[in-house]
UniProtKB/TrEMBL annotation:
Record membrane topology: Multi-pass membrane protein
GO cellular-component term (any): membrane
Family annotation (SUPFAM superfamilies): SNF-like
TM region(s), chain numbering: 43-68, 89-112, 132-160, 172-191, 227-248, 269-291, 311-332, 353-375, 395-418, 445-465
Pfam families: SNF
Species of the source: Dysosmobacter segnis
The keyword Membrane appears for this protein: yes
Origin: domain of life: Bacteria
Protein name: Sodium-dependent transporter
Length: 468
């Protein structure tokens, strides 16, 4: 039985912070979104673009969020008001992001739990059958049951607090997750198949070899924008999570070193996810197997596992266990951000706010589950993609609010407060911030422009600009 604390608590040290922050960063976005985008946007070309953006934009946004949290010792809701009273509204905008994400993240976690259970109790061939995923998510009971199991586990970890809950479980889950991902990636590299024409097919080239076939300025810019949007998923920036986690970091922790470790861990897992998924899908299903996010994970991969024969069940169990761990650590960080903010708003204990946020998460997640049957509808988003209820929540939080929040944050830090405010926090204990000049240039000049372009893209301006 864990004991909770009502007031501000923190991580025990640098390792606890890095593992918890990496756990937040490494989520289903790394494992189901990164490989799909990598295959879609030129393989090694997307990978190269993404690495450049991580070392520039990623480090800038991550450093900003963590530094704001540690220096103000406030969660996102109050941190911006502490920085500048007229910018308090930015904290409320930031609060909206996890509020929206929490409506559907446990639903996706429930999908993962369902598939893990299928492979655990059977040979998993039913998961590879046509229509299995659709029949599951459109049923009215089963998705809710598995969502409840995932949400209950998430709430328990958050209820236990920062050190006894989030940090403790991250210390166990993250090393296991890393080992599982490495194991499947190594296995995936051993796969090959000779087709009917006698050609031996391997899939690693699809990940690391740049593909310039049919490359145009528009397709390259789309790849850059896809890589930029992936940063939000991967690093948990501009959603209040890293500000909240930063507020739990002790003053003697080297932020520059810790942030660098988070970048390496997160990017490494994303790359390993690509090795884990792309070669196996190419070998067994070809290029057509790299469908969009949910289809790749819940339709294409089960078919790959079925094609492996007897070993496919074992690979399926390990894969969905790893994906489940990734989803859990990310969902915990989202819920923790909501709980921490609500503790400040309502001046209640962690126990009471966990209960309140838990009820909110339950009601909204059930609504999202019913969005595939009872509340089903379709509409076209401003960026041109078709959507239903879950997609709408995802679009508003990740494609609309997060670029907008990053834009406003870069203006606040770059031009109102000044980059030196963040740099001083990073160098608080005499540590050298080697990328200080890069940080200043990025925050003042580069981030505002790119975030404006990304925001306009999410509103449909990009499609309008390139309309024939």
């Amino acid at each position: 039985m864990c004991k909770t604390k009502n007031k501000h608590s923190g991580f025990s040290g640098s390792l606890g912070f890095v593992l918890a922050a990496a756990g937040s960063a490494v989520g289903v976005g790394n494992i189901w979104r990164f490989p799909y985008l990598c295959a879609k946007d030129g393989g090694g070309l997307f990978l190269l673009v993404y690495l450049v953006l991580v070392l520039t934009f990623g480090f800038t946004l991550l450093t900003t969020d963590v530094a704001i949290g540690r220096r103000t010792k406030q969660n996102a809701l109050n941190a911006f008001g502490t920085l500048h009273k007229k910018w308090r509204f930015l904290g409320y905008l930031t609060f909206l992001v996890p509020t929206l994400i929490m409506t559907y993240y446990s639903v996706i976690g429930g999908w993962i739990a369902k598939y893990f259970a299928v492979y655990l109790v059977s040979d998993g061939t039913q998961a590879a059958q046509d229509g299995f995923f659709t029949s599951f998510i459109t049923s009215q009971v089963s998705p809710i049951v598995f969502m409840l199991l995932f949400l209950a586990l998430t709430a328990w970890v958050v209820y236990c607090g920062v050190e006894k809950g989030i940090e403790k479980y991250s210390r166990y889950i993250m090393p296991v997750l890393l080992l599982l991902v490495i194991g499947i990636a190594v296995f995936s590299l051993t796969l090959s198949r000779t087709d009917d024409s006698g050609v031996t097919r391997t899939g690693l080239q699809g990940l690391v070899k740049p593909d310039f076939t049919g490359m145009t300025l528009r397709s390259f810019l789309n790849a850059v924008l896809d890589a930029m949007s992936q940063l939000f998923f991967s690093l948990s920036v501009s959603m209040g999570i890293m500000i909240t986690y930063g507020s739990y970091v002790k003053d003697d922790v080297d932020l520059n070193k810790a942030n660098g470790q988070i970048e390496i861990f997160d990017t490494g897992v994303a790359f390993l996810a690509g090795i884990m998924i792309i070669p196996s899908v190419y070998v067994f299903l070809g290029v057509d197997g790299m469908a969009s996010r949910p289809s790749l994970t819940f339709i294409s991969l089960p078919r790959v596992f079925a094609s492996m024969g007897g070993v496919g069940r074992i690979v399926g169990i390990v894969f969905f266990l790893a994906l489940g761990f990734a989803a859990l650590t990310s969902c915990v960080s989202v819920m923790e951000t909501l709980v921490a903010n609500c503790m400040e708003i309502f001046h209640k204990s962690r126990k009471e706010m966990c209960a309140m946020v838990g009820v909110y998460s339950l009601v909204t997640a059930v609504t999202i589950c019913l969005g595939y049957n009872v509340f089903y509808f379709e509409l076209t988003l401003p960026n041109g993609s078709a959507a239903q209820l879950l997609d709408v929540m995802d679009y508003i939080s990740n494609s609309f609010l997060m670029p907008f929040i990053s834009l406003l944050t870069s203006i606040l830090i770059g031009w109102v407060i000044g980059p030196k405010w963040v740099i001083d926090e990073v160098e608080k204990n005499g540590e050298h911030f080697g990328r200080a000049k890069l940080y200043s240039v990025m925050m003042r000049y580069v981030v505002p422009v790119v975030m404006l372009i990304l925001f306009l893209t999410s509103t449909g301006f990009w499609n309008l600009l390139f309309r024939h």
